[in-house]
Specification:
Elements: H1 5-27, E1 37-39, H2 41-52, E2 70-72, H3 86-119
Length: about 120
């Protein structure tokens, strides 16, 4: 089953938000007591399904920061209390970029199809 245009757009936004979170981890790699963060994709996708089910304008929706999908990792820490592992964060950023680019290509495919349909009319 293929993803709808809305689902692809939400995944792009999620990967964009994750890149910001991971970049913050890298930027704070030497900040004492800083705890690395990440996005809980299972929770995010469940929230995404709920957002798709909104049937009334007053239903509550929110972005990644508001929906509680950003999690702080409390595993291990250096002497200064910081637990950022730079190599791990950079690997996550690379993987995240690949997934972002994948969904952008899917989005571009939809745009190309729409353009073709419009131009044939």
């Amino acid at each position: 089953m293929g993803l709808s245009l809305t689902e692809i757009e939400q995944r792009i936004q999620l990967h964009t938000e994750r890149q910001k979170v991971l970049s913050s981890n890298v930027a704070n790699a030497e900040t004492p007591n800083y705890k690395s963060k990440d996005i809980d994709f299972n929770k995010a996708l469940n929230n995404e399904k709920k957002q798709l089910a909104v049937t009334h304008e007053k239903h509550i929706t929110g972005g990644p920061g508001q929906s509680g999908i950003i999690v702080t990792k409390d595993d291990g820490a250096w002497k200064d209390g910081n637990n950022v592992e730079l190599n791990e964060e950079i690997a996550k950023m690379s993987e995240n970029k690949i997934m972002h680019d994948f969904y952008m290509a899917r989005f571009a495919g939809y745009a190309k199809k729409f353009k073709m349909v419009i131009s044939t009319r």
